[in-house]
């Protein structure tokens, strides 16, 4: 019903306006007595075979929602009712920022893709913490970044501020240095700046109780040499793992006229490249650290492909928009058939 009736209506309107409308609708529906339990019964697959233990955390299933959908942690409790094993909020920055000028979100229907140049729009980490205090048992990851006006040489301080503010309220952290929509951010993926940044967060983690996992989210556009550097950096800094991958700046093979829009591309065109990156990292590291696979997952087969390539968990975003809320259930049921 979603793809035949609901999606065609939603896709008649501006994507960002639809996003806000959908948020308000889901929030309102969940306030109806009994509705949250009903949604969980429809969309959730409960089976011990789906459970995973990764970087010291127990996931009820391996399918999560990627960062960017619930940037400010306003809807993670309600979204968990669609069957996700975990929700990643953010990207959050120390100070609120509006992001890039609108329009900044574009559907590429002919390619089953999205281009965004949001630019870390969020209400700031302290506002998100207020929402996270109301967590009702959801496993949450905190995706952190730097403010646009912060120069790269001072970026570590922005990440530290977010890290410390979120420490008591998230289960794991994701260091986002791979968004193409914040000027010069991807320069932080270079070996020496990245080692310095991750080491500083690891130092803070060792001083804290609980020692929550820190992961690195990388771009799909890295060369093999750069990916080898990532493997060495993970080993040298001792972080828990990698999320592969963020959006791409490549436009190879696209048909939609919106392909000319500047920003990061997500969706089906990213599927093969993100899987290649997962496979390469897993092979080069000899499976020494966990990988969360994300990029172009629109079906159970897509998810299985990433798991077989070496991912321990997977995340969806664009597939959730194109395929509808039933996608998570279909993936989990598909995984059960393969077990």
Automatic annotation (TrEMBL):
Q: Where does the record place it?
A: Cell membrane; Membrane
The GO molecular function terms of this record are: dihydroorotate dehydrogenase (quinone) activity
| Protein's UniProt name | Dihydroorotate dehydrogenase (quinone)
**Record-listed E.C. numbers:** 1.3.5.2
Q: Write down the membrane topology.
A: Peripheral membrane protein
Could you list this entry's UniProt keywords, alphabetically sorted: Cell membrane, Flavoprotein, FMN, Membrane, Oxidoreductase, Pyrimidine biosynthesis
Q: To which species is this protein native? A: Sinomicrobium pectinilyticum
Q: Which NCBIfam families match?
A: PRK05286.1-2, PRK05286.2-5, pyrD_sub2
Gene Ontology terms: biological process: 'de novo' pyrimidine nucleobase biosynthetic process; 'de novo' UMP biosynthetic process
Q: Which cofactor does it need?
A: FMN
Record gene name: pyrD
């Amino acid at each position: 019903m979603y793809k035949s009736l609901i999606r065609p209506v939603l896709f008649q309107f501006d994507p960002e306006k639809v996003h806000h409308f959908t948020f308000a609708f889901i929030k309102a529906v969940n306030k109806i007595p009994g509705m949250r339990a009903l949604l969980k019964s429809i969309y959730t697959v409960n089976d011990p075979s789906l459970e995973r233990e990764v970087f010291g955390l127990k996931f009820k299933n391996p399918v999560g929602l990627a960062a960017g959908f619930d940037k400010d942690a306003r809807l993670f409790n309600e979204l968990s009712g669609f069957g996700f094993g975990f929700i990643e909020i953010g990207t959050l920055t120390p100070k609120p920022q509006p992001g890039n000028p609108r329009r900044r979100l574009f559907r590429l229907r002919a390619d089953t893709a999205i281009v965004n140049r949001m630019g870390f729009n969020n209400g700031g980490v302290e506002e998100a913490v207020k929402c996270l205090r109301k967590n009702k048992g959801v496993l949450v990851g905190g995706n952190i970044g730097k403010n646009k006006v912060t120069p790269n040489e001072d970026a570590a301080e922005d990440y530290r501020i977010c890290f410390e503010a979120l420490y008591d309220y998230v289960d794991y952290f994701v260091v986002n240095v791979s968004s193409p929509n914040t000027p010069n951010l991807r320069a932080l993926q270079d070996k020496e700046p990245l080692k310095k940044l991750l080491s500083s967060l690891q130092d803070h983690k060792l001083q804290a109780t609980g020692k929550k996992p820190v992961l690195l989210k990388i771009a799909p556009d890295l060369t093999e040499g750069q990916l080898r550097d990532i493997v060495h950096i993970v080993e040298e800094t001792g972080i828990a793992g990698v999320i592969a991958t963020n959006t791409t700046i490549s436009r190879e093979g696209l048909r939609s006229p919106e392909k000319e829009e500047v920003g990061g591309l997500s969706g089906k065109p990213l599927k093969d490249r993100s899987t290649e990156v997962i496979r390469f990292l897993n092979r080069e590291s000899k499976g020494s650290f966990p990988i969360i696979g994300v990029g172009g997952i629109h079906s159970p087969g897509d998810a299985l492909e990433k798991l077989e390539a070496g991912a321990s968990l997977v995340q969806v975003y664009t597939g959730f928009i194109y395929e509808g809320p039933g996608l998570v259930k279909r993936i989990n049921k598909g995984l059960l058939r393969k077990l």
